[in-house]
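Thread: "does anyone have the structure for this chain?"

Original post by V.I.:
We have the sequence but no experimental structure in hand. Need at least a predicted one for the grant figures.
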Amino acid sequence: MATASAARIVTRADDLGSYRSANRAIYDAWKKGILRNSSIIVPGGAFDHAVDMFRGEKGFCIGLHSAVTCEWNNVRWKPLLPVGKVRSIVDEQGALRKSTQEIQKAGVVFAEMLAEMQAQLDKARKAGLDIRYVDGHMAPGWLFEGTDDTRRYADVVARWLEKEGLISAGWGNKLPLSRLPVTARGEDRIAAIAAAIRTLPAGDYIMVSHPMYGDDPEVQPATYGDAKPGQIARQRDTERRMFMDPAIVAAAKERGLKPIGYDEM
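Reply from O.Q.:
Generated one for you, tokens below.
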């Protein structure tokens, strides 16, 4: 853990492999900012593009963003396994359901979810990525909380992570990390994060976002839920800046905040 005066932060970008714009933003935040981890969506439409960019990158920690849902309205990811083997997590068109609530309504089958997660891990490794940790896209683990299956689910996940040599970053036990004390949204969020960093007490922290380039024509029409075209693009451009805005980089340097990978914990 951090020393009496030191502060470290696990900086993580989710949704690598979802869009080319996300891949580029994540790569730039790694090279020019404080980003040190990214979680890849293997069924995503830009998976191959992400592999080409990050395969062989030294010092950057890549995890599996285990995806059993696809929230986007204009893009529909499909599972790697045949529909007949993962029927509880796919819709009538054979695409991943839009939310964990839809999975719950359809009837949760954890064995199907774990089988798809294994297939995604296998594909990422076969592509040459050194997967170090696992987290869950849209937090599917909550489906098993407070049920009779809770302990069985937790034990199965723990054994799977141990067998595969993976760190848990959202499935099963979580690492002891604190969120930054920031509540501001929009443009004010960058200044608020910078201010928080400058006065951080000693400890280990985490900051998670979903970077994209908001002016990219690829993501301008991208929506989920009731969002309007351009709305998500603007939000995710701010999330890109959370890792690479000059104000953030300068604040981290001033505080002596050390960005680290999960594999450095």
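V.I.: this helps a lot. The longest strand covers residues 7-16.
O.Q.: and The radius of gyration is 18 Å.
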